[in-house]
Amino acid sequence: MPTPPLLPDSATEPDGSAVIRVLSYNIRSMRDDTAALARVISACAPDLVLVQEAPRFFRWRKKLARLAGAANLVILSGGATAAGPAILCTLRATVERTEDVLLPLTPGLHRRGFSTAVVRYGGARLGVLSCHLSLQKDERYEQGGMLLDRLAAMGVEHAVAGGDLNERPGGRTFRRMAADLQDCWATAPWGTEYTSTPIDPHQRIDAIFATKGIEVIGCGVPLGRPGVTQTDLRAATDHLPVLAALRVPATA
After folding, report:
1. Does residue 7 sit within a domain?
2. Are strands 113-121 and 215-220 parallel, antiparallel or unpaired?
3. Inter-residue contact 233 to 158 (CB < 8 Å)
4. CA-CA distance, 155 to 202, in Å (whole number)?
């Protein structure tokens, strides 16, 4: 497999726009090789990490903070307070606000939520949302609508959302989201496509979406990026990560 060209480094442009790197990653409650997990995240050099299945039980904050520290990041929002989704970031971000959102609970199903924030990079203001949608198709579809509503209510011109959708691109929830937002892989494919499973990648159920004013420079599984090895990807968790480089315009 040929090595993909490198995505651009993070940067703030003279006009106030910003190039940011966003990683979405289901970390399976850190039940696997956390050193490998930290190496993968660190090698991707993200500004933002949209986490799914962050630790939710005993000493969950300490566990997530340990991962963030190992990857030279800090916790921005989420974790148990959002039923699993979380956001990590570098100190490059100027944080305007954060909010954890618990979604309606369907009896017998797992509680779901959104981890959200509004941050600034230079003159660029960005809404951010991490999600892990339901395994049940009807609930998942409703949650997709709630995600779009939440982004619209954040009061920002530009936003990025990502996570484990538990659905392939042909599914109706995925299509609902891609109708309103840019599916970053479809817009500017880079790296490889499939995110599940690391042992046998055969489906894309994890994705990053961006509002239409954002330029998607490239997006995909960072296989072949320096420092990201097959061994670490297989040891870290049961999903592959998605990395996107985005150019966010300065806010007027």
Report:
1. no
2. unpaired
3. no
4. 37
- What's the pLDDT band for 1 if we cut at 50, 70, 90? low
Mean pLDDT of 13-36: 98
pLDDT band at 224 (very low <50, low <70, confident <90, very high): confident
User: What is the per-residue DSSP string for 70-116?
Assistant: HTT-EEEEESGGGTS-EEEE-TT-EEEEEEEEEPPPPTTS---EEEE
Does a structural domain hold residue 3? no
> Residue 33: which domain range?
14-248
**pLDDT value of residue 201:** 98
The one-letter code for the residue type at 242 is V
- List, in order, residues 6 or more apart from 180 with CB less than 8 Å away: 148
Q: How many domains does the chain have?
A: 1
Q: How many CB atoms lie within 10 A of CB 57?
A: 8
Nearest residue to 47 via CA among 2, 8, 5: 8
Amino acid at 132: H
Instruction: Concatenate the DSSP letters of all residues of 50-66 into one string.
Output: EEES---STTHHHHHHH
Asked, for residue 6, whether it belongs to a domain, the answer is no
* Contacts for 149-155: CB closer than 8 Å, 24+ residues apart: 150/101, 150/114, 150/116, 151/127, 151/181, 151/211, 154/116, 154/118, 154/127, 155/118, 155/127
Residue 41 lies in a domain: yes
61-66: average pLDDT: 98
